[in-house]
């Protein structure tokens, strides 16, 4: 069973108030999200600064958009399973272009996204893989401070410095823009659960690798 969410409810849960926490070095990071800023309608937020995270050849004949949350166990299972075969057999061979779009159930998923994006497109998928592999550890580490500390460890494993992580995680404007970007994308594609997929414009549910392969092969004309 996929994880489902009410779009506005999820956004509201993230947006209400701010959560003050400290970095691993003890210096205050401050509020990640401020209530006033999050009262804005997502439609009024300029999301053009958000970079699409893409794997595969730009001219691949099949495009898959994945909607996923870093705190979703079913998403972690997909990335540990079917995704590995899709990447090996279709993405790495130039047949599929994957566009990864984050969904935010909670502020922890948003924080994870900000860490994953902190290293830019070059490091995003590597950090994402580390997050999914260790999801059961960092997502259940305890309170917000403990979760932040675990997320920072993942960022540092990927080569990010403390100062870089501090700058990324205290960027309230970026956080607000990411929430608006998520809302716009989810509404446009009518996404209400994760993981969800759009294969060449057609919405499909999470499924075993064999079924994904059949869908992809059909789009390839095989």
TrEMBL record:
From the record, what ranges are coiled-coil? none
Pfam families recorded: Thioredoxin_4
Molecular function in Gene Ontology: isomerase activity; oxidoreductase activity
Tell me the InterPro entries matching this sequence: Thioredoxin-like_fold, Thioredoxin-like_sf, Thioredoxin_domain
Q: Which UniProt keywords apply?
A: Disulfide bond, Isomerase, Oxidoreductase, Redox-active center, Signal
| SUPFAM superfamilies registered for this protein in UniProt | Thioredoxin-like
Thioredoxin domain residues are: 31-221
Instruction: Please tell me whether the keyword Zinc is annotated for this protein.
Output: no
- According to its UniProt entry, what is the function of this protein? May be required for disulfide bond formation in some proteins.
Q: Which family does it belong to?
A: Belongs to the thioredoxin family. DsbA subfamily.
- Protein name, UniProt field: Protein-disulfide isomerase
Taxonomic source organism = Sedimentitalea nanhaiensis
